[in-house]
Amino acid sequence: MPKPEIKKQPFYVAKVEPAMLPVQEKTQLILEVIKKSQTLEKDNMGRESVTMGVRHNDPIELICLSDLHVGSLAAGLDPLIDLVKYILDNPNVVVVDLGDSVEGIKAEYLDTNRTAIDLQQQIDLIRALVYEPLAAEGRILAMVSDYWGHPGWAQDATTQNPWISMTKGLNIPLIQNGGELKIRFANGHTVTEKIWHNPPAASAIDPVSGLRDEALTTSESSRANIYSSGHIHRTAVGEEAYAGGKMKIIYISSGTLKGSGGEGARDKYGVKLGKRLSDPLLQGVILQPRTRNKEGRSYPFSTQEQGEMAFKAINLLNRAESSGTTKELLETIRKKVEASPEISYTSAKSRLGGIHTESRPLDKLKVGGETIRNVYSKMEMKTPYDRLSYDIKTQLPIALQLVANARIGSSSEGFKDLSGFMTEVAKNPHSVVVFLRNMIDRQAGESPKRIQILDKFAELIKGAEYQTLAVMMDESMRQSAWKGKMGKGENGFPVAPASYIANATGIPLIHHLSFMEITIGPSGTTASKPRYYGAFVDKLNNSGSFSKPTFGLRQMYNKFTHEKPAFVAGGHMPSAGTMTFHDSTNAETYHPMLVGTGWWAKYVDTMGKGNVMQGAEPGQAIIFMPGASQADFMAFPTVNADETKYMHEALMLLKGLEILGLTEKVLGKKK
């Protein structure tokens, strides 16, 4: 077949200047350009990880400085000026900046983005007020960058980097949104904090939801110790210990200066959305590095006042431990200040319930052809309290131990470990106890040894009966099996288990959603002391979460308590944790607490046989400070027994040494 004739075009490229690059050479140059540009791009962004060294091993107070919105008409500056002074006056107080430090300007938001000064003036102002004085003393450990937000508006519009402009020449490390800050003490102990401005996800009920998801989807050996973020202007500070896990994790959602009250105007954005005031800032964490004898500890705080008190207390304990005088000082406090508190039941403020009552066991039973008299039928029936009130006369902090989930009577009961714990509690008269749900196994009523199981629980209570405030008549004590006869002998007779325990121990009963009021202080009158008013729960009305220890408790607070309490504790979830959040409508405290209890039993029994698993570590508590009025309200929730003991000792030293006038003497002792 003949080839087709190729017609030559009348025009052709005769020569070009400069000459075209060969394809291979051009490709190589493009690759080089991209590689060098990538290097420049990485250098222009925040770091993925920054390690900051600490030249000593003393505790430090790390404050989350978030959402200052300097330049906004809704952000008052007096609290910020006071904060900078506090930081500079205290050498071991530092900050990490979680973003939105200036208001910025964006055309689409001119009505809600209210500011009297332009972006450059905002940057100049925050440098003068905050960054320059703090950076000069090395107090800013890092700043989060590279996020969509108020400074980010300028970057989106111009590609200029506002975070570099804010920190230029100040030696403040920039960390990418979601990067990590490592704080390494002189002895090598390192604490890792993952920081975001805008968290990976958000929840209207649970401000740390996205942070938790990030932690739980990370292998435990790679998890950070602390996860923190800003952006949503909602406060939540929590510690969580997970079923089967080895480490606790701290979560911090920081508040804001913008629209949270004070001398600033209302935030028009929040007004247009119909929202309440934003939550105030100044959340953070106290970091205590490990010592020769003890592991490192971190304790979060939800307000500046709580942080200052915790920091002073931990510093005192650190100094006492360094000099080996902790035991001696605590003994001196108990000898010279107060050996034990005076605990009084306040009948006038207590109310018995009418719904959660037990029916009296039948007087006679027919077994085979024989009628037998029930030896437990004439027992005094006890009604649980809807509201139970106590007054504690004391000058020292009181630890409310929340004991639950021992499952006495089961093959996986935690009786032995709990007995040892209760022995230690009994040695500390400034500890009080509430026994919550699942202390006896859910199937205990079906056991032919059920009276022995109840006696075992009663003996445990008697070991600290003068410190025990209440026992919960929970789901386990309300099973129908208790009404029937099981086996031979007195052990098998029908019994009302809660009344049996109350009669055997003399301890009042509470039920699901009972309230307790505890007034704590040195005065003899309850009106001149802070009141700690809380609710205890059995199960969580179908609101529980296996991975979110306090989620169901928050729902109980939101939907099932009408006059909001200072704390809600209990629940039946496998994991444990604490959470403090902000509620400006709460008459008890603006910072209510949630405490989900862990498991003394070896295994969790509430999720069905196909989901048998180990529960989270027990030992949760709330430490209440004494005072002269409600203005002295101050409480410290704890996530496990070790933290409870540590913080209680620290706060005992703080108050006791203050009363004795020995604080400065102890702080003056150096190793």
Task: Write up what this structure looks like.
- This protein has 671 residues and is α/β, with parallel strands linked by helices.
- Helix content is 27%, strand content 22%.
- It has a 24-stranded mixed β-sheet that branches. Strands 14-15 form a two-stranded antiparallel sheet.
- Helix 11 links the parallel strand 18 and strand 19.
- The longest helix has 22 residues.
- The protein starts with 22 loop residues before the first helix and ends with a helix.
- The model has no long low-confidence stretch (mean pLDDT 93).
How would you summarize what this structure contains?
The chain has 671 residues and is α/β, with parallel strands linked by helices. The chain has 15 helices and 26 strands. The longest helix is centred in the N-terminal third of the chain and has 22 residues, at 23-44.
